Amino acid sequence: LAANSPFAAEYQQLFYGKLAWTPIPKLYDLHLWINDGLMAIFFFLVGLEIKREIVEGALSSKAKAFLPAFAAVGGMVVPAAIFWFINKDNPEMLSGWAIPAATDIAFALGVLALLKSRAPVALKVLLTAIAIIDDLGAVLIIAFFYTHDVHFQILYLAPPLLLTMFIMNRRNVTSSFFYVVLGMLLWVIVLKSGVHATLAGFLTALFIPTRNVHDPEAHPAKEVEHA
Prior knowledge:
The chain has helices spanning 8-15, 30-56, 62-87, 91-94, 98-101, 106-115, 121-145, 152-155, 158-170, 176-193, 198-206, 220-226. It is an all-alpha fold. The model has no long low-confidence stretch (mean pLDDT 81).
């Protein structure tokens, strides 16, 4: 509505942080905060869900993972191939091939949630697994196809943080505070290196323990997710 109103120019200026009165333009760049801030948090939650499903859920065995994996890959490859075929003679348009590859199964899950018990449980599990694998595919697409001008001198600071989180995981450190702090540092490093910052959220989630070995009923990942 805003983009198609008489205030479209002001809307664009606000969204991209180009208002004349802002003392620090980047600080008010809503586009930056959504793409590299909120999306990093979203992929952090996606990472928690992926790890939980791989460890003890719908993707915990090859037999369970095959059908949703096959469906998810097909749901990304086929739309992208159709997009490529239609736009193969237009190089400028071809750069948007990843848009149809994102299937947005979250909408289907929302409809199933409204149906509640009337929707088969098996269908919910299948769509959830497809959504998780699709999100993982989206992370890989961002990493390999939409990351440009990588500054490796900054990115070299990331492995020590990842190693620290790995050691914390192996020692069963379940306090969400330490993971959040290290994850924020990793986010800054990845953002400044030129790599898409969503990867920082995803990688941080993979190192959070799924269960506490001293308290099998506790789920650190779920506690972080709700926090």
